[in-house]
Design brief:
15 strands; mainly beta; 3 helices; 15-stranded antiparallel beta sheet
């Protein structure tokens, strides 16, 4: 996979930096109910059960910037789609500033999530993704599926320097089962990476879905995902 070299470089730099990137774990009190199972943060991220979804960017030195740390969006509601939210604002990274635009459209079973990162000048990028944290307490020893292929989530931490669990290009569906329900993510030609973030002392696995394009000198990049929540059957 084209991201394998980048993962290895990122591991080295993160280890030298003394820590890993960190997802915001605590749900803020000002979350907005967007659809059943989905809560929208004022910083643009989505809480889905004990999972959290946000945009992340790695520059050409593997310095990571996470949405909740830099994004202070203006939120508007399209007049033709009163239940939708459009968030726009600056996303400042090491090489410049992107304008991030997210649109979240509630659907019968979840949310249609689309995002664009745009800049007037090319910004050197090692990786741009939507990242989802998967708590070890929920997923340890269990499995997720990508296009029906089982991906075991190891109970034991990965060996140092080898956090890679799974990757795939051209995926169409990701299923993330939890006791409360299953998050189903669909899209066209998804580039997926799963890794064990306990490498850096975090009690989670990291799942990243790459923007298109996801690396290089980027002036514009986008992602489009359908997110569906299937509540667990009542016992």
């Amino acid at each position: 996979m084209k991201h394998g070299y980048k993962i290895a470089c990122g591991i080295v730099l993160l280890m030298l930096g003394g820590g890993a990137s960190a997802f915001a774990q605590t749900q803020p009190s000002d979350d907005t109910d967007l659809a059943p199972g989905f809560k929208l943060r004022t910083t643009g991220g989505l809480d889905i059960g004990d999972m959290y979804l946000e945009v992340v960017h790695f520059d050409d030195n593997w310095k990571e910037v996470e949405e909740h740390d830099v994004f202070q969006p203006t939120v508007t509601t399209p007049t033709t789609q009163p239940s939708s939210k459009v968030l726009t604002g600056d996303f400042v990274v090491g090489g410049g500033t992107f304008k991030l635009t997210e649109q979240l459209d509630p659907t019968d079973a979840g949310v249609h999530f689309s995002a664009t990162m745009a800049s007037d000048k090319a910004i050197a990028t090692n990786e741009m993704s939507v990242a989802i944290n998967l708590q070890v307490a929920t997923f340890s020893g269990k499995q997720i599926t990508v296009d029906g292929e089982a991906v075991p989530m190891p109970a034991a931490p990965a060996p140092k320097g080898d956090p890679h669990i799974f990757d795939k290009d051209g995926a169409k569906e990701i299923d993330l089962p939890t006791p409360a329900g299953t998050l189903v993510i669909t899209g066209d030609n998804l580039s997926v990476l799963v890794q064990d973030d306990r490498e850096w002392g975090d009690q989670r696995y990291g799942l990243r879905i790459h923007f298109t394009p996801s690396d290089g000198q980027i002036t514009s990049s986008k992602i489009d995902l359908q997110l569906k929540w299937k509540p667990a059957a009542a016992k």
